[in-house]
């Protein structure tokens, strides 16, 4: 099956608009919060057709508790003699330079990498990223869920050490290559996103820190106040019908597209982006409807319609204008 896909792609002219190289990345971290740190990183460099050029791996001393050791297996003792992120920043940057960053749930890996470079008063030399979750949706792969292990199983790639950065990067590189060739054979436009620089910098002196270029650990982005939605709420979304301007939309959980970009698209379409869920909410967008988040629980209580990110993206293409008063 995999050989047939690759052969079919080889008979199709390679798109000149496709990137000329990729850096498949995986990072393990002390946790998922904005002040958590990278404890290991791996990069597989691929050429424009997804063939492996080389790979690289390093542990990183986070200068703090390593977090869920039972997941990543890296103890404080193992990390004690590892280099600091600032020590490997140049090597890491050299492997990203001029390439598209590829990761599974890329917004997470990119966010962690960008924050580490911000702490080191540096900017990573990567302009675009590609999420393999988004690509699998574009290809309409018949996956039971969006876990890396499901993508790997689909392409017959065997995982050896789940949650080890080097093996996860290897698995993703091996699954990305046939995905890339399938995209070529189907004429799919790659879901590339811009890697925006962080806004964690402050020109104001911070107590106990350097007076310029200070890193403020608790601030991920400058707060943004969205303009009030100018349209009245037309009520709840109904399956099979289009979205309508003024509908209140809430989001819950991880998204393959940067949450802020997704909310921007919703706002530009004339929807009201709600930060919480109430009886007035028209729709909840989540990729994990079985999770126990407060929004999902309230959606069940109120009978609020729930759809996933892919379906929401389709609906955003044709939002019905608000009714004229």
TrEMBL record:
UniProt keyword Nuclease present: yes
One Pfam family per UniProt: RNase_T
Region annotated Disordered, chain positions: 212-241
Domain called BRCT: residue spans: 241-319
Gene Ontology CC, one term: cytosol
Alphabetical list of SMART domains matching this protein: BRCT, EXOIII
Chain ranges of the Exonuclease domain: 21-185
Highest taxon of source: Bacteria
Protein name, UniProt field: DNA polymerase III subunit epsilon
Organism: Streptomyces poonensis
Lineage summary: Bacteria, Bacillati, Actinomycetota, Actinomycetes, Kitasatosporales
């Amino acid at each position: 099956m995999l050989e047939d896909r690759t052969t079919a792609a080889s008979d199709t002219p390679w798109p000149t608009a496709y990137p000329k190289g990729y850096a498949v990345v995986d990072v393990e971290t002390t946790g998922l919060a904005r002040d958590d740190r990278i404890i290991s990183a791996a990069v597989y460099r691929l050429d424009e057709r997804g063939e492996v050029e080389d790979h690289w791996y390093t542990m990183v001393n986070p200068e703090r508790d390593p977090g869920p050791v039972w997941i990543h297996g890296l103890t404080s003792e193992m990390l004690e003699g590892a280099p600091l992120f600032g020590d490997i920043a140049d090597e890491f940057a050299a492997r990203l330079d001029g390439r598209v960053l590829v990761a599974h749930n890329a917004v997470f890996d990119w966010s962690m990498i960008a924050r580490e470079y911000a702490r080191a008063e540096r900017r990573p030399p990567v302009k675009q990223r590609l999420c393999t979750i988004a690509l699998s949706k574009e290809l309409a792969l018949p996956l039971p869920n969006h876990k890396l292990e499901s993508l790997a199983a689909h392409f017959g790639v065997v995982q050896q050490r789940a949650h080890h950065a080097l093996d996860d990067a290897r698995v993703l590189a091996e699954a990305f290559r046939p995905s890339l060739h399938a995209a070529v054979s189907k004429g799919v436009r790659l879901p590339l996103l811009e890697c925006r620089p962080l806004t964690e910098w402050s020109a104001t002196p911070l107590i106990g820190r350097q007076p310029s270029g200070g890193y403020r650990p608790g601030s991920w982005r400058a707060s943004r106040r969205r303009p009030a939605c100018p349209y009245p709420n037309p009520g709840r979304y109904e399956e099979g019908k289009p979205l309508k301007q003024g509908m209140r939309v809430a989001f819950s959980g991880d998204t393959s597209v940067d949450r802020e970009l997704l909310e921007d698209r919703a706002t530009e379409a004339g929807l009201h982006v709600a930060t919480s869920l109430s009886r007035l909410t028209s729709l909840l967008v989540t990729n994990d409807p079985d999770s126990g988040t407060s929004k999902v629980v309230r959606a069940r209580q109120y009978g609020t319609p729930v759809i996933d990110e892919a379906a929401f993206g389709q609906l955003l293409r044709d939002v019905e204008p608000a009714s004229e008063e």
